[in-house]
Amino acid sequence: MKNEKGNEITGNKVTDILFCGTGGQGVLTASEIVSLAAMYDGFHTKKSEVHGMAQRGGSVESHVRYGKHVSSPLIEEGQADFFVPFYKDEHDRLIAYLSKDGKDLLSDLENAHLACENKKFVNTYMLGRLSKHLNISQESWLKALEIGFKGRFVEENRKVFLEAANKA
């Protein structure tokens, strides 16, 4: 089965993505953008957020699940297809959520810090790297970036996203 964008939606396969970091790093914004991009491509999407301390620097994680039909917003331990950390300590604490065949984007985080002079674009860089692995159209990603950043630094975020997405 294909959705209206022509992307293959086979069986009941759900894609599970876990984002983690600390408050102020853009974890919630990044998960919102992935959710929007998947919805724009016709996927059923669920998202859940878990906050630690209610302040900048506290632990934050967000679960995103999309597919033909998604029942629960939470990813079970050992089931995440993609693990997107924004902070190494949170990566180490939550790595048990990654499935044995899952993709850990920790090395992309290290590259993001080298590639982004302005650290507020690290989350966008990580989204670009993640996009290479997902069956979501670039058109939907760019629309989601525009909506997700609500007009703030849209062109800069678009540029960082595309550079990361097109990097070998």
Tell me about this structure.
The protein is of the alpha/beta class. Helix content is 39%, strand content 23%. The chain has 6 helices and 5 strands. The protein has helices at residues 27-40, 88-94, 106-115, 122-131, 138-148, 154-166, and strands at 14-22, 44-51, 59-67, 80-85, 98-104. Helix 1 packs across helix 5, helix 3 packs across helix 4 and helix 4 crosses helix 6. The longest helix has 14 residues, at 27-40. The protein is globular.
Predict the CATH topology: Pyruvate-ferredoxin Oxidoreductase, domain 3
Structural class: alpha/beta
DSSP, total strands: 5
Percent in helix:
25-40%
Gross morphology: globular
What portion of residues belong to β-strands? 15-25%
The CATH homologous superfamily: Pyruvate-ferredoxin oxidoreductase, PFOR, domain III
Oligomer: single chain
Whole-number count of domains: 1
Query: Roughly what is the average pLDDT, rounded to an integer?
Result: 90
Task: Provide the low-confidence segments as ranges.
Answer: 1-7
- The helix/strand series, from N terminus to C terminus, equals EHEEEHEHHHH
CATH class: Alpha Beta
Q: How many whole angstroms does the radius of gyration measure?
A: 15 Å
CATH architecture assignment name: 3-Layer(aba) Sandwich
For the largest sheet, list the strands in their spatial order: 2-3-1-4-5
